[in-house]
Amino acid sequence: MPTCRCGSSAVETDNALGHLVCQSCGEVLEQNAIVSEVTFTEGGGGQASADGFFISKNSARASSKGGPGGVGRLGAANGAVPESREQTIANGHRRIAQIGHQMRMSGRQIEQAQRYFNLAIVQNFTKGRKSNSVAAACLYIICRIEKTSHMLIDFSEHLRMNLYSLGTTFVRLVHTLNIKDIPLVDPMLYIVRFASRLEFEDKAPNVIKDATKLVSRLDRDWIVRGRKPAGICAACLYIAARMNGFTRSVTEIVEIVKICESTLRHRLAEFKQTPSSALSVDDFQNLMLESSQDPPSFLRKKRKLEEEDKAIGEGGLTAVQLAARAAEGKLSEDGDIKGKRFAGRGGYNEFDGEEVDVDPEAEAAADEMQEALKTEEFREIAKIAGINMDAYDEDLSFLDDDLEVNGCLLTEEEVDIKKLFWEAENKDWERAKLATDAANANKPVSKKPRKKREPSSGGSGPAGSAHEAGLNFIASKPSLSKKINYDMIDSLFNEDPSAPDGAGYDSVKTGNYATGSVTGFGLVGYGN
Average per-residue pLDDT in the chain? Predict the structure, then answer.
């Protein structure tokens, strides 16, 4: 029993307001207390509804009351509207369950995918994205974690969505939820699935065993890394089928595994470069080579360099390859391969430790520049620019031994190589330019005559007087207005040299203006 600070234990409880009040001093001990009792209110039609609000485990706030007395049966059945988050979660869970059952996933996996969907809702990942893509991404996360035989292309075909857009949604969902324990796809997961569709009958276990061993062999030879697992699985099944006496065509393998023919042929070509491809069927099934092959990308680069070196020895290297090798520093003056050399801007300008003769023109240019820096004119310019030339050494001979400066100067051999490289890269442009020049040389040169500018109708020069300017303006626009008396405008100016100045203006102002006004309507509003 609660006791007041005044020492009285006479406390009254108001269930309607949730207050505890001391009857002795009137102090409110508790306010807005939450009561666990459920009360009901009878409506106008005789139905009973519960009072209060309902808060679900996934809702952010309490839902509104369903009727005049309360939420009734605490749901949408009596009119309560669920919030948007609840609707999104319910629709997402229902869609995940539908897709999971159609893809033959277990109930436990579907529940795990629904939990990831709840996390995506919390991170607002579903905004602006289709619910099907988010649901498929959540299911594929479980497939990757549980290491099932489902592929992303299976979800794409089932939902009729773009594979790359679905893959983008999956990657972004993984980054958003910060999931770091997703393992890489093992091609062995799809061996049994695809082998069952190729109808190997009683020898299916033998084919699966050989294909699994081929996958392990390819993984040891660095062929599995960086490649799609479907292509590895297709190549291993194709070889294992041949090893057990089945002739499955490339087209059949491609249609089942859902890859391109070129992908399968590339994987087969890479396996052909390994030592395991030279073994017989019995040796491969009973032996496992301890050595491993270098990665295919490394072998391709090594093979390319060997072919170029062979072409150099035979003298069959093209101009483009010669220039490229020279730029990489792999050729000396006589075309032999060197260990190290870097020629060009900021590098060493040497051939196998022997210095190259400096171009005389380059020396003359350097001397001329050094003399120009010593002139008074240059010092004045530097002074205006705010550069103190006294702080610099006038003698620039120390630059002669600077490796960076010497590397900027090309030797005659480098100029020739650069010229060959440019001509090889721009030979099409040079041919087109020579053809254009030859065609233009045979054509007579014809110049278009200049069009003489016609003088304006308003006069060839500036007006000498106001009268002339007015006449020129009227002549340039003959149809200025139909309500203007142009004859009267002409009479405003006196062209008679014997008449006194202003005679025309006075005659219009006094007598003629009333009978012959400029507008043609006579004198309006003016007296004599």
Answer: 75
Q: At what angle do helices 427-442 and 412-425 cross, to 10 degrees?
A: 70
Query: DSSP strand E in 417-520: where?
Result: none
Structure confidence at residue 390 as a pLDDT band (50, 70, 90): low
- Give alpha helix (H) positions in 249-295: 250-257, 261-272, 281-286
Choose among 317, 330, 224: nearest CA to 274.
224
Range in 18-27, 158-167, 275-284, 325-334 with the lowest mean pLDDT: 325-334
Residue 68 banded pLDDT, cuts 50, 70, 90: very low
Rounded to an integer, what distance in angstroms lies between the CA atom of residue 349 and that of residue 453? 64
Q: 237 and 211 in contact (C-beta within 8 Å)? A: yes
How many other CB atoms are there within 10 angstroms of residue 24's CB atom? 12
333-356: b or e for each residue (b if 16 or more CB lie within 10 Å)?
eeeeeeeebebeeeebbebeeeeb
Query: pTM above the 0.70 mark?
Result: no
Is the model's pLDDT at 98 over the cut of 80? yes
> How many CA atoms lie within 13 Å of 363's alpha carbon, on the beta-carbon side?
5
Q: How far is residue 309's CA from residue 288's CA, in Å, rounded to a whole number?
A: 35
- Residue whose C-alpha is closest to residue 195's, from 126, 241, 161, 149: 241
DSSP string, 432-443: HHHHHHHHHHHS
Separation of alpha carbons 271 and 50, rounded Å: 74
Which pLDDT belongs to residue 294?
78
Given a contact cutoff of 8 angstroms between Cβ atoms, the answer to whether 209 and 237 are in contact is no
Residue 444 has pLDDT above 80, yes or no: no
